[in-house]
Amino acid sequence: MPSERALWCTVPVPAGAGHGTMRADINDARSGAAQVTQIRGTQAGSGRPAGGAEGAGGTVAELGEFGLIAAMSARLPTGPDVLLGPGDDAAVISAPDSRVVATTDMLVEGRHFRRDWSPAYDVGRKAAAQNLADVAAMGAVPTALLVSFGAPPDLPAQWALEFTEGLRDETAEAGASVAGGDVVASGPIVVSITALGTLRGRPAVTRSGARPGDVVAVCGRLGWSAAGLTVLGRGFRSPRVVVEAHRRPEPPYDAGPEAAELGASALIDVSDGLLADLGHVARASGVRIDVDTGTLDVADPLRAVAAAINADPLRFVLTGGEDHALAATFGPDVELPERWRVVGRVLAAKEHGQTGGEPHAGAEPAVTVDGEEYEGPAGHDHFR
User: Fold this and answer.
1) What is the pLDDT of residues 109-118, one digit of tens each?
2) How far is 81 from 72, CA to CA, in rounded Å?
3) Contact predicate 183/151, CB 8 Å
4) How far is 62 from 245, CA to CA, in rounded Å?
5) Whole domain around residue 47: which residue ranges?
6) What is the distance between the alpha carbons of residues 228 and 245, in angstroms, rounded to a whole number?
7) Tens digit of pLDDT for each residue in 274-305?
């Protein structure tokens, strides 16, 4: 759950652990490909693996570094934006706009996912989704991913290959492809992804453009992943629809470029919680944002989970992360498509404790709910 668009991510690697990259070494890896007798695609129209890889039993250590590289690369077709994919020292990505949108994010086993909670395929889709959503949140169109994959030597090879299938299918949903990456031995499974995108001639939509008088609108689901995490954390698997939402988010990738075309003044993906992420917009823009709870959609599955734990279902919607909906601010006269739900408004920032009048110099931006300060955490923070 990224709270900011990080620039660099590093992972400690055990001493003596080997590094392998999906590049020129792939030529040497072809000898290892014989260890994988057949690579299957996906079932037509399903987006799910059609039974996995035959002959991929055993562990990644038994498959070997180059056998693993070959097997993963064989499952990753490249799209038109990738001019040169796996098989050389670096990939070459088309950049006709002359600008490249870049973001990176990590998933660490035990922190972002658990193997007993999520199948490998879903972990792959989730890993891709959270990066692709950040590209869309700049108003850009995703073009390619670079994926670094760290795994313990005793990880079943089948897990790694099904994870790769998930990466492939989610990336294809956004119209992009995996252009290359790296594999390494590690303790827990660690995935680090760099996502690239193109603005197609448009200016980037940042967090800092919201202005008093704008409306706040959301496209996508809110609170579903948090409800699913709550269910899994209590040892249950239903309502299944929220569990699936946690395992595999569904970001509205095309809504980012759509927002840019509509003239959005600010844009962000909801990865840490609606209030937390709107807080990033408020601080960057120097404004105050007020959320109107009467406009929020609290779906029946969220109400069911909240009732089971005697909680307020609205908390899932306001503070739940990892749905990767897009939140944007627009001028008040912009006619929004139906899938964009207006959920609040942008106001001038006020000092804490001020109840009216014009904002003073040095006023603090804030996010309020129905005009009042929200009690409790606004969303996810990795170190709290």
Assistant:
1) 999 999 999 9
2) 20
3) yes
4) 34
5) 19-198
6) 7
7) 999 999 999 999 999 999 999 999 999 999 99
Look up residue 78 and give its two tokens: 């490249």
The reply to whether 92 falls in a domain is yes
Same domain, 245 and 113: no
- Which CATH number is 253's domain given? 3.90.650.10
Q: Residue 274: what are its φ and ψ, rounded to 5°?
A: -60, -50
Asked if the structure places residue 278 within a domain, the reply is yes
Last residue of a domain, one of 173, 198, 223: 198
pTM here is: 0.83
Tell me: the pLDDT tens digits for 245-264? 999 999 999 999 999 999 99
Based on the domain organization, do 270 and 308 belong to the same domain?
A: yes
Determine, yes or no, domain membership for 8: no
**C-beta separation of 296 from 323 below 8 A:** no
Which residue, among 90, 207, 81, 83, has the nearest Cα to 141 in the 3D structure?
Answer: 81
Is 90 exceeded by the pLDDT of residue 214?
yes
The one-letter amino acid code at 212 reads P
Residues 280 and 337 occupy one common structural domain: yes
Over the stretch 220-233, which tens digit does the pLDDT of each residue have?
A: 999 999 999 999 99
Based on the fold, state whether residues 80 and 181 are members of the same structural domain: yes
Map residue 217 onto helix, strand or coil.
strand
Phi (first) and psi of residue 332, to 5 degrees: -65, -20
- CA dist 329 and 36 (Å) reads 50
Domain total in the chain = 2
pLDDT for residue 383 is more than 90: no
CA dihedral in degrees (231, 239, 294, 372; nearest 10)? 0
Residue 183, SS3? Answer: strand
DSSP 289-337: EEE-GGG----HHHHHHHHHTT--HHHHHHH--SS-EEEEEE-TT----
Q: In whole angstroms, what separates CA 187 from the centre of its chain?
A: 23
Amino acid occupying residue 112: H
What DSSP element (H or E) covers 185?
strand 177-185
